[in-house]
Amino acid sequence: MKVSIERGALLKAMSQAQSVVERRNTIPILANVLIEGDGDTVSFRATDLDIEVVDRASAMVSRGGATTVGAHTLHEIVRKLPDGAMVELQEEPGSGRLEVRAGRSHFSLATLPREDFPVMANAEYDCNFSINAPVLRRLFDKAKFAISTEETRYYLNGVYMHASDGASGPVLRCVATDGHRLARIDAELPDGADTLPGVIVPRKTVGELRKLLDDDDAQIAVSVSETKIRFATPNVTLTSKVIDGSFPDYTRVIPTGNTKRMEVDATEFAQAVDRVSTVSSERSRAVKLALDEDRLVLSVNAPDAGAADEELAVAYGDERLEIGFNAKYLLEIASQVDRENAVFMFNASGDPTLMREGNDDSAIYVVMPMRV
Hints:
There is one protein chain. By secondary structure, the protein is an alpha+beta fold. The chain has helices spanning 7-20, 71-80, 133-143, 203-209, 266-276, 327-334, and strands at 2-6, 32-38, 41-47, 51-58, 60-63, 65-70, 86-90, 97-102, 105-112, 127-132, 158-166, 169-177, 181-188, 199-202, 219-224, 228-232, 236-241, 260-265, 286-292, 295-302, 306-313, 315-316, 321-326, 341-346, 353-357, 360-367. Strands 5-1-7-8-9-6-2-3-4-17-16-15-10 form a 13-stranded antiparallel beta sheet. The protein has a nine-stranded antiparallel beta sheet with strand order 14-11-12-13-26-25-24-18-22. Helix 5 runs antiparallel to helix 6 (327-334). The N and C termini lie far apart (66 Å).
């Protein structure tokens, strides 16, 4: 194999590949990236056996072939090469070495046989549809903060993607929850997605997918089976196993009878919560909200560290209410608001609170209160 590729294209492909590769591997081949040169394209394939990413880039292929080399090492080398450099990758048959040359730099890297590299089996995908990158980005970006990190409840360690019925018709819905807060995000259901089986996309896959979604003009081809999900652009294909488990009935958690309505400037609210929670030394950082006629007082009382309070002007016309929350949860939910105002719907101090962006029901959040 002998290929020449521009440093920027190689760095982009290797960044995607090496982030899938785990730092610690008991199987040596899983630390490697599979490089295949053919025609005028070179592809880079990496896997951790649960996720596989294939990144294709244009290159001058003098001699086709394939080899595998340490993903993190090659990424570091390319990262440190000068901008605009042409990088030559060459392996002589049977040498067991990949020669990397750029300008006056030369590296000789150990390789492993390409036959040992595990390639994820192709699944029969039951559902195929196409969706704009910004739409998919919004679905996952707004939901992922609520993914659980508790390994025992593995079925909560991802984003539940499924077709559902929204207020104005069929929707593509992403839901995540950790039992303390919940995010439910809707988008218009794309053509062909009505047969979508509900799948739980793992946390790591959600992180890797984010790198495919930066181009606002990109169309993402999504293919789903009961065990796998694939996201593809013309240059990158990300395939992942889905979490084998049943996502709980999240609709039972979303309150429907909350009538006490508070509207507040989302940025001002987040900044005020951040300021008053500074004095709290506890991990939970409880913050109390005291609501009265068009007035909100945020307060924190930490006996060891001190106390703080701040008053905000809000739109609120119901009876007086005091309710406590984990400050971190409030900050994460407030940071999801793209519009100017956040609307909180309360019931009582011990009941879940609903939050949405203005009058938009396509993104709703639920947060459980805590005693303060």
